[in-house]
Amino acid sequence: LVKILNVNILNPTASFLAPYKFEITFECIEQLKDDLEFKLIYVWSAKSSTLDQELDSLLVGPVPMGINKFVFEADAPDVSKIPKEDLLDVSVILLTCSYMEKMFTRIGYYVNNA
Known about the structure:
With 114 residues, the protein is an all-beta fold. 0% of the residues lie in helices and 55% in strands. The strands form two sheets. The chain has a four-stranded antiparallel sheet, with no helix packed on it. The protein has a three-stranded antiparallel sheet with strand order 1-2-5, with no helix packed on it. A hairpin with a 2-residue loop joins β6 (90-99) and β7 (102-112).
């Protein structure tokens, strides 16, 4: 029903505290009955997903058939929730998309905080 065509990082060299900005292009090949839900998640520990920070979520809809594009902007992670010894480590940002509460896309990016 939906195919992610491109994700363009609009600020790839931004500082750690700068907002994340993604331009997302996707194609919808059938009429959708519900909105798409996009989430941006900051993962600083591979040990437990309970430590992940959901930076933002966005409902997109109604979605017309064809190629669609939008900019998804989310605030930086809350540094007070990250142990000081982990602040300069490599972490991960996950961009997910769900339809009717079922995730069908998960795109990950490494983030170098040094």
